[in-house]
Model the fold of this input.
Amino acid sequence: MAPIALEQPLNESSHLGCDNSLISDPQTIPDDHFTATSNYSYENKATCFPFRARFSLDYPDNETYCGAWAAADEFQNMDQYIQVNLSKMHSVRKIKTQGRTFVKQYVKSYKVRSSTDGSFFQTVQNSTAHGDLVA
Done:
């Protein structure tokens, strides 16, 4: 499973509503706050950078990007992750994923982990059942 690592604990200190997207707006979370263990690239033309994990992004003129983050081919079956530095405490109530359009690059399951220091991560526990939060 590929964990999605959130660099802040999941708590109630932020008042974003469930319908507001925390990471989709580059003005809220800058592109350089997204990191990943690897990214897929096709002939150096379309690179699936971590910030491409945002939903509903416009493509800059004359540039080609993947419409999602995807791990490099050689690492598909290994523990790959994407990490987002939220910069401050936020309440994260849901996580939405997307695969790449027209190709079979998507996750089937993942774990959610959080950290206050970006070094030590704890797996988020499911509040309605015992054990790790696994989707």
Q: What stands out?
A: The mean pLDDT is 73. The beta strands are 4-6, 34-36, 41-42, 46-47, 82-84, 112-114, 122-123. Residues 1-37+78-135 form one domain.
